[in-house]
Write a structure and sequence with these properties.
Layout: H1 13-16, H2 19-42, H3 49-56, H4 60-66, H5 70-75, H6 79-92, H7 99-116, H8 118-130, H9 132-160, H10 165-191, H11 198-208
Helix pairs in contact: 2-3, 2-8, 6-9, 7-10, 7-11, 8-9, 9-10, 10-11
Length: 209
C-alpha cells in the first residue's frame, strides 16, 4: 500500500451538486488544507483545533461540525460521503463494462482529481511518511473505499442476473485485482521510477493486468 493519503475524488460531482452541498465540501477542504499546512509549517505538537479553525477562517464549533478531532482533519475523509460518491460512480458506468473497466475509469477519474490540487496531495503524502499513525488511518480510508467499490460492483452484477456464489467471488477477485493495479501505478508514480505521467502509468498498469 502506498503512503499517499487520499480518498476518491469524483471530479465532476462538485460542479453538479447543489450550492449548499458544494459549500459544505469547500468548507471541509478548507479545514483539511489548513490542518495540513499547519502540520507542515509547525509540526504536530503545535497543531490545535483552534489554530486550524483560525487558519481555515471558521469557528471551532464549525470545525467540529466536520471533524471530531484534529487528526481527522489531517486525514480529511468523510466516510459516508466517500462511499456514496463511489457507489454513484459505479452506477454511472455502462452495464457492459467489466469490473476491471469500471475500476480503470475510477482510477483515471481519481488521478484527474488529484492533479487539480497537487500541492494538497503532496502535503498529505509527506505527512503520512512523517507520521506513521496518520498513515495507518489513511490505510483504513483506502480499505473502506475498496470495500465500497467491491460491494457496488457485486450488487450491480447481482441485479443484472442471478449470480451463483462462485460468480460473486469472481467479481470480488477481479475488482480487488484492478484496485491493486491502481495502487501499483500510484506507487510507481510516487517513486519516480517510470518516465510517464500518472494517467499513463494507470493505463499501463491496467494493460498489464
Amino acid at each position: 500500500m502506498t503512503s499517499v493519503a487520499d480518498h476518491p475524488v469524483l471530479v465532476d460531482e462538485d460542479a453538479n451538486c447543489g450550492l449548499r452541498e458544494r459549500k459544505k465540501r469547500e468548507t471541509r477542504r478548507a479545514i483539511h488544507r489548513a490542518a495540513l499546512e499547519l502540520a507542515s509549517d509547525s509540526g504536530m505538537d503545535a497543531l490545535t483545533v483552534d489554530a486550524i479553525a483560525e487558519r481555515a477562517g471558521v469557528s471551532p464549533r464549525t470545525f467540529f461540525n466536520y471533524f471530531p478531532a484534529k487528526d481527522d482533519a489531517l486525514v480529511g475523509a468523510d466516510p459516508d460521503d466517500d462511499v456514496d460518491r463511489l457507489r454513484r460512480f459505479v452506477a454511472s458506468r455502462p452495464d457492459t463494462e467489466s469490473p476491471r473497466e469500471v475500476v480503470h475509469a475510477l482510477a483515471l477519474d481519481r488521478v484527474a482529481g488529484l492533479e487539480l490540487d497537487r500541492e494538497l496531495w503532496d502535503m498529505r503524502r509527506e505527512l503520512t511518511q512523517r507520521e506513521p499513525a496518520i498513515g495507518l488511518r489513511v490505510l483504513g480510508v483506502y480499505a473502506r473505499a475498496d470495500r465500497a467499490v467491491v460491494e457496488a460492483l457485486t450488487e450491480r452484477a447481482r441485479a443484472a442476473r442471478a449470480l451463483p456464489l462462485d460468480d460473486e467471488f469472481a467479481v470480488t477477485v477481479e475488482t480487488y485485482a484492478a484496485l491493486g493495479a491502481f495502487r501499483a501505478a500510484v506507487r510507481a508514480h510516487l517513486s519516480g521510477s517510470q518516465a510517464a505521467t500518472f494517467a499513463e502509468l494507470v493505463d499501463r498498469a491496467f494493460a498489464i493486468l
